[in-house]
Amino acid sequence: MRVLFAGTPAVAVPSLNALLEAGFDVVAVLTRPDAPLGRKRTLTPSPVAARASELGLPVIRAAKIDDDAVAAIRAAKPDAAAIVAYGGLIPERALSIPEHGWINLHFSLLPSWRGAAPVQHAVINGDDVTGASTFLLEKGLDTGPVYGQLTETLRPEDTSGELLERLSHSGAVLLAQTLSAIETGAAHAVPQTGNITLAPKLTIDDARVDWRQPALAIRRRINGVTPEPGAWTTWDGARFKIGSAVLRPDITDLAPGRVRFTGGAQAAAVVGTGSSGLELAQVQPAGKKMMPGADWARGLANREDVVFE
User: Fold this and answer.
1) pLDDT attached to residue 302
2) Rounded Cα–Cα distance for residues 249 and 244 (Å)
3) Beta strand pairing status for 59-61 and 42-44?
4) 107 close to 83: Cβ distance less than 8 angstroms
């Protein structure tokens, strides 16, 4: 079966690899245009574009599916299109090109967490189980009938980045299996049922810590916005980033946002919340690199006036 693959970030690369390993004829790869990265803002291919180039596959770069992109997709003559985190909408005129449609790998158990950030919202929400779904792409937002699903247990310490990495590999297998079933005529898509929840893209404001919330909710938010957009608070008028934190239910006498330091071998920085303490495991003060919270605490062991806002 001739397959067009659409994807952009690193989490889509395992799916491209899986389709090739399964023997599909990947006739072209659709991805976002090269983007400026780093301090020098050097134009850099997307991870999917880079992998496609290594494999010698034709690459269609498009920020949106315009007339030129539609013509390129049509010229590739795909029987089906597989899409994983492409990062743009597929218009109806492109949806109708492949005979078997566009098969989307989405990192949630649809209809839960429809939208751009399903894994992040699952972690922030404290879900016990999430997963991935393959479904037939249609005009609505992640509304199409589902071909298959898999489940993944969330660990308390999981960041969205860690969870997404696991799902990118297990989901790649699911996507290849779905396309194989479509090719043999064994696939059967069923309408979505159950409670619908939405997972819009997270903004930098979504990553700001509200210390009045319970410690568990704060830790979930920190994990959910790691690595992007990255949890933060403010100290002395500057942004202060938080990489990870540990629950300290034994500390209940700190006001929300107030920091208590201990030095020496047991150095720690513990912040008050709406319930109990939260020990900062990884922090990044303004102008510095990410560091262990214990190292930051040693430098401020005598301070009693640090309050996050």
Assistant:
1) 78
2) 16
3) unpaired
4) no
Q: Tell me which residue of 127, 92, 93 sits closest to 113, measured CA to CA.
A: 127
- Strand 238-248 relative to strand 129-136: parallel, antiparallel, unpaired? unpaired
Q: In degrees, to the nearest 5, what angle opens at C-alpha 33 toward C-alphas 32 and 35?
A: 110
Distance between CA atoms of residues 6 and 104, nearest Å: 9
pLDDT surpasses 90 at 45: yes
Q: Which residues pair with 270 in a beta bridge?
A: 260, 279
Spatial distance between the Cα atoms of 165 and 172, rounded to a whole number of angstroms: 11
Helices marked H in 140-159:
none
Q: How far apart are CA 132 and CA 195, in angstroms?
A: 16
Condensed to tens digits (0 to 9), the pLDDT of residues 118-140 reads 999 999 999 999 999 999 999 99
**51 has pLDDT over 80:** yes
Tokens at 15, concatenated: 């799916």
Token pair for 52: 């496609």
What element of type H or E holds 99? none
Q: CA-CA distance, 186 to 235, in Å (whole number)?
A: 58
Global pTM exceeds 0.90: yes
For the chain, the residue count is 309
Tokens of 213: 């919330």
- Angle CA 120–121–126, to nearest 5: 105
Q: Using 50, 70 and 90 to split pLDDT, how confident is the model at 194?
A: very high
C-alpha of 32 from chain center: 17
3-state secondary structure 202-258: CCCHHHECCCCCCHHHHHHHHHHCCCCCCEEEEECCEEEEEEEEEEECCCCCCCCCE
Over residues 244-298, the pLDDT tens digits come to 999 999 999 999 999 999 888 889 999 999 999 999 999 999 999 999 999 999 9
For residue 136, the cross-strand partners are: 103
